[in-house]
Amino acid sequence: MTTISGSGSALTSTLLDTVNGTGSTSSTSSTSSTSSSTSATSTSSTDLQATFLKLLVAEMKNQDPTNPMDSSQMTSQLAQINTVSGIGALNTTLSSLATQINAGQQVSASTLIGKNVLATGSDLTVASGTATAAGVKLDSAASAVTVSIVDASGKTVRTLNLGATAAGVTPVSWDGKDDTGSTVSDGSYTLKASAVNGTTSVTATPLAQAQVASVIQQSSGTPGLVLSTGSTVSLSAVAQIL
User: Fold this and answer.
1) 115-209: which CATH number, 3.30.750.24, 1.10.275.10, 3.10.150.10, 2.60.40.4070?
2) Across-strand partners of 194?
3) At what angle do helices 71-109 and 13-20 cross, to 10 degrees?
4) Spatial separation of the C-alpha atoms in residues 230 and 212, rounded to whole Å
C-alpha cells in the first residue's frame, strides 16, 4: 500500500491498476463509474483536478515497468475531469437564470394586485341576487359536464348541465337562482363539477372568482397569489383575468 503525500489517504494497488489500465475491463469500468458518481456529488471540480494530479504523480512512481501508463487513458481521464467542471459551471448558470426568471415573474404578478381573477377554487358568493363568476377546467374533452351549486347546509340548490365541452377553461354562467327559478339568499356557496367522456371519467377542476390581495414567493421560488378567499395559488392556476 502506497500513501500519497499530503492527502492522508492510502493508494491501493487496485486503484493504481485502475489508473494504469492494468486491471480487468469490468473492474476499471466499475471503479471509474463509482469514482465519477461520488466525485460529482461530494467534491468540487477543483478538488477532482487536485486529486487527479496526485494520482498521476503516484502512478508515475509506481507504474508497472512492463506495462507503462497508456497516454490515451490519461487523455480520457483529463477529458472526464473537464466534463465534470463544465457540468458544474452549467448547473450554476442555470440556477442563476432560474432565480432571475422567478424574480421577473414576481414583478409581473404584482400588477394583478387588486384585480379579480378566475382561479382554482370552489367558493362562490351571492350578493343582491348576483353571483360571482365561475368556471370549469377540463383536462380533456368531455361528452357531458355537470355543475352543482351547493349552499352552506350542503343542499344542492342548482344543477347545470353543460353538455359536450372541449378541453380547457369553460365559463359557468349562474344567474343566482335555484332549480325552481327562485333567487337564492345572499351568502356563500360551493361549486362542484364532474365530467365524463362516454363512460370514462374526466378530471374537472372548479374555478371561482377572487381578488388578488398580494404576491408572495413560494417555497419553490415561484410567485404565488394570495387571494381574497384566503387561499394561495400559483400564477399558472389563474385561468382568466376578469
Assistant:
1) 2.60.40.4070
2) 146
3) 90
4) 10
The C-alpha angle 14, 19, 25, rounded to 5 degrees, equals 75
Tell me how far apart the alpha carbons of residues 114 and 116 are, in angstroms, rounded to a whole number: 7
> What's the grid cell of residue 106?
414576481
- pTM here is 0.57
Cell of 116: 379579480
> What DSSP string describes 71-110?
HHHHHHHHHHHHHHHHHHHHHHHHHHHHHHHHHHHHHHHG
Task: List, for residues 153-183, the tens digit of each pLDDT value.
Answer: 999 999 999 999 999 999 999 999 999 999 9
CB-side neighbour CA atoms (13 Å) of 135: 21
- Given pLDDT bands bounded at 50, 70 and 90, which one contains residue 18? very low
Q: Where are the domains of the chain?
A: 115-209
> DSSP character for 229?
T
Beta-strand runs (E) in 180-228: 187-197, 200-202, 204-217, 223-227
Distance CA 196, CA 199 (A): 6
Coil/strand/helix, residue 238: strand
